[in-house]
Amino acid sequence: MIRVLLADDHEIVRLGLRAVLEEADDIEVVGEVATAEGAIAAAQAGGLDVILMDLRFGAGAEGTLVSTGADATAEIKRTMKNPPNVLVVTNYDTDAEIMGAIEAGAVGYLLKDAPPSELLAAVRSAAEGDSALSPVVANRLMTRVRTPRTSLTPRELEVLKLVAAGSSNREIGKVLFLSEATVKSHLVHIYDKLGVRSRTSAVAAAREQGVL
């Protein structure tokens, strides 16, 4: 029996997922949580094989200590010797979201409009530790591998070079005569184009693709 936890801050989504999963004889929904923190706590309590993890959660009882499903996934992987496998189920399909979840340790990535048969197959694959990507996500990843999105503007490239040199947002702003908010906006665009979620990953990806 595959023991599944549902981690999503929308009750109607959890009800829908539960309805599909409980039709299967080999899958049991053993719990539900509405926050990223709750997902971490449930995982660490044990007794789970697979977590269906949303990517974005509202604030928990103590505020949003861990704000995303990717953060929760990384924390679960970091703190547990034999963690449950995480299958992301979300509405978000940008390169940055997909790569962030996979880099955090998720074994699969499904969109919420996936048909029930695809969801059940993905849960079974995730329970075995196998990759489970919806066709849409798989196609995006293959496209990204074949044609990296490296079309950084000259200004974005200037920002990235200063990031690579170790400059803070404030220092970058002073050098380029930009506000910190504008620097942050450039970084968001850089992350999206490179399919990453952090300064370090952006620099590494840019170097790998020959941008820097």
Tell me what the structure shows.
- With 212 residues, the chain is α/β, with parallel strands linked by helices.
- The chain has helices at 11-21, 36-45, 69-79, 95-104, 116-127, 135-146, 154-164, 169-176, 180-194, 199-208, and strands at residues 2-7, 27-33, 50-53, 85-90, 108-111, 132-133.
- The chain contains ten helices and six strands; from the N terminus they run βαβαβαβαβαβααααα.
- Strands 2-1-3-4-5-6 form a six-stranded parallel β-sheet, with helices on both faces.
- Helix 7 (154-164) crosses helix 9 (180-194) and helix 9 (180-194) packs across helix 10.
- The longest helix is centred in the C-terminal third of the chain and has 15 residues, at 180-194.
- The protein is elongated and about 60 Å long.
Strands, helices and their partners?
Layout: E1 2-7, H1 11-21, E2 27-33, H2 36-45, E3 50-53, H3 69-79, E4 85-90, H4 95-104, E5 108-111, H5 116-127, E6 132-133, H6 135-146, H7 154-164, H8 169-176, H9 180-194, H10 199-208
Parallel strand pairs: 1-2, 1-3, 3-4, 4-5, 5-6
Helix pairs in contact: 2-3, 3-4, 7-9, 7-10, 8-9, 9-10
Protein name: Response regulator transcription factor
Pfam family, one: Response_reg
Organism: Corynebacterium antarcticum
Terminal CA distance reads 49 Å
Gross geometry:
elongated
Give me the Rg, rounded: 19 Å
Tell me the fraction of residues in β-strands, as a range. Answer: 5-15%
The total strand number stands at 6
Summarize the amount of helix as a percent range.
40-55%
- The sequence of SSEs as H and E is EHEHEHEHEHEHHHHH
Sheet having the most strands: 6 strands, parallel
Structural class: alpha/beta
Strand order of the largest sheet: 2-1-3-4-5-6
Low-confidence stretches: none
Could you tell me the mean pLDDT?
88
Q: Work out the helix count.
A: 10
Protein name: Response regulator transcription factor
Modified residues (4-aspartylphosphate): 54
Keywords: DNA-binding, Phosphoprotein, Transcription, Transcription regulation
Pfam families: GerE (PF00196), Response_reg (PF00072)
